[in-house]
Design brief:
The chain is mostly helical. It contains 21 helices and no strands. The model has no long low-confidence stretch (mean pLDDT 83).
């Protein structure tokens, strides 16, 4: 299966999942608001299982499983024994960790927050008891999905989150039916009862469980049958654990930085004295929007290329490794630069989709812009990190992360002491941009030194993308101005429908300017864009032909 076709299958699932994820975020904002204490309490609780999972094994699974599973396929049984032992171990280990983490919910909530009042902490802990079991299901989902990826079955891993979002949306719809909405935080947090907490947080966890369970269907479809096997001694986990040690250390360092980020962001609630102040929930929504182009395109590309590069590295074919790296980085740069500029220009209309109050809209839009500046280095750094993992080098990314996290922690503490409450989350977003730029630069320099030059023409391509994006941005900005700009009563801000229409019109102007500029300067990347569009067009023609 070609990279374009594999990426298209994965991206299509991710696009639908992200659309549903957006609907989920919009519905949650309508229910709880974006700059309210209840929204922040749920935001912290629902993020905890992701944080704990990442600390325990998220990075380890992503870094070591595909290379090890690719090797295991050469075993006489096709790797079945290795897979059964691995999944059995995961069920036991993560089941135990989930129980411990859930019991420790009050401690975890206190670690990730700063300056919250007792009633807000109590609500966050109540949510956390229902959300932390997600930890177990995230682990199983990753394990099942990586096995599928190692066999070039990329689609199910990217389509499973669709089911997760559907279940969560149904739960949120039921919540609104029974309990109504409170987007401005008028109700006291003491009014939250067991029924409200369990319905909202419980269905969120049920969605993650469904996301994991559905992958067993894909396993059976390709002929993999899980049989529990507790014979863990001597089944070849030593290389994986050795590689995983550095990845675990890296993720631990990153999550320590994340604790400081969450603590400083949560402290912004102390500035809510009548005005809208961005805190945990606003940061989460801005990050969701930021991650859309990254997860739809970069993650899909990187996942496909990861398996290819792992195979080439295993065969000692460094020329193919470098060729794949260059190809993947060029596409990543194209998409990241275009997406960054587009979302920055329409940041406030996009924010209007999530919040109705003008002051809250401005707060969310400012955070989003600060995040989007860092999309290109973030995506490049992610792709390079995958390349290190494919080469079975997890030590180098660890040391790069130590540098990044150290700078971030120092910056976050400085922000907490010097930046006013209303601007703290935006300042943290800019800090993220700075540190991911450092991370990407270090990764690029070190990898190039290790395997030789793999960036021929990459800088020139990126400069052409930046020029084209700048022209598109000017067109998009003036298009937005023509339909009223972002005044409080403008078409693009007044209603959600107006915001969507304005975003689409301005976005099309940006895209047209981008492509037209590349054509005018006769950029060779026009062919690259055509190659990306061809499989999409073919897919659409096939659907219409039916």
């Amino acid at each position: 299966m070609s990279v374009a076709r594999s990426s298209l299958i994965m991206a299509s699932g991710t696009i639908i999942s992200r659309v549903l994820g957006f609907a989920r975020a919009v519905l949650l904002a309508a229910m709880l608001g974006v700059t309210t204490n209840a929204a922040d309490a749920f935001g912290i609780a629902n993020q905890l299982p992701n944080n704990v999972y990442a600390i325990i094994a998220g990075g380890v699974l992503n870094a070591v499983l595909v290379p090890q599973l690719v090797k295991a396929r050469s075993h006489p049984d096709g790797g079945a024994g290795y897979i059964n032992r691995l999944l059995t171990m995961a069920i036991v280990v993560f089941g135990s960790i989930t129980v411990i983490a859930t019991i420790a919910a009050p401690i975890l909530v206190n670690i990730y927050t700063s300056g919250w009042k007792p009633e807000q902490l109590a609500l966050a802990v109540a949510f956390a008891y229902w959300c932390l079991p997600q930890l177990f299901f995230y682990a199983i989902y990753s394990m099942l999905g990586e096995v599928l990826n190692s066999r070039s079955e990329f689609g199910p891993y990217m389509w499973a989150p669709v089911l997760n979002n559907v279940v969560a949306l149904l739960g949120m719809g039921a919540y609104i039916w029974f309990f109504g909405v409170d987007p401005t935080g008028q109700e006291s947090m003491q009014t939250w009862g067991l029924s409200q907490v369990s319905l909202l947080a419980g269905t969120a966890t049920l969605g993650v469980a469904a996301q994991a369970a559905i992958l067993f269907v894909s396993w059976r479809r390709i002929g993999i049958e899980f049989k529990p096997n507790f014979k863990w001694r001597g089944f070849g986990m030593k290389p994986a654990l050795k590689a995983g040690f550095w990845t675990l250390a890296m993720v631990l360092v990153t999550q320590i930085a994340g604790i400081f980020q969450s603590s400083v962001a949560s402290s912004a609630v102390n500035g809510r004295t009548g005005g809208a102040v961005a805190s945990v929930a606003a940061s989460g929504i801005a990050w969701l929007i930021f991650m859309l182009p990254h997860s739809v395109f970069t993650v899909s590309l990187a996942t496909v290329y990861f398996t290819r590069i792992s195979n080439h590295a295993h065969q000692k074919d460094m020329d193919s490794v470098k060729s794949d790296l260059l190809s993947g980085l060029r596409v990543t740069a194209l998409i990241s630069i275009l997406a960054s500029v587009a979302i920055i220009v329409i940041a406030y209309p996009i924010s209007r989709v999530f919040v109705g109050e003008y002051e809250a809209l401005l707060a969310l839009g400012k955070v989003l812009i600060c995040f989007m500046i860092g999309l290109l280095p973030f995506s490049i750094g992610f792709f390079l990190q995958k390349a290190f993992y494919a080469l079975e080098d997890t030590k180098t990314p660890f040391w790069i992360s130590v540098v990044q996290a150290s700078i971030y922690i120092a910056g976050a503490l400085t922000i907490q002491q010097t930046v006013p409450h209303p601007d703290r989350v935006a300042a943290l977003a800019l800090l993220t941009t700075a540190t991911v730029t450092i991370q990407a630069t270090l990764g690029f320099v070190i990898l190039r030194k290790r395997i030789g030059d793999f960036s021929s023409g990459l800088v020139a391509s990126s400069l052409r993308f930046i020029l084209a994006a700048a022209v598109g941005a000017v067109l998009g900005y003036f298009t937005l101005k023509l339909i009223g700009g972002i005044r409080v009563d403008s078409f693009a801000i007044r209603t959600v429908l107006g915001a969507v229409i304005a975003s689409m019109i301005s976005g099309l102007a940006i895209l047209a300017g981008f492509i037209a500029t590349l054509v005018v300067i006769r950029a060779p990347e026009v062919k690259l864009i055509a190659d990306l569009v061809k499989p999409v067009a073919a897919k659409v023609r096939g659907i219409i032909g039916r």
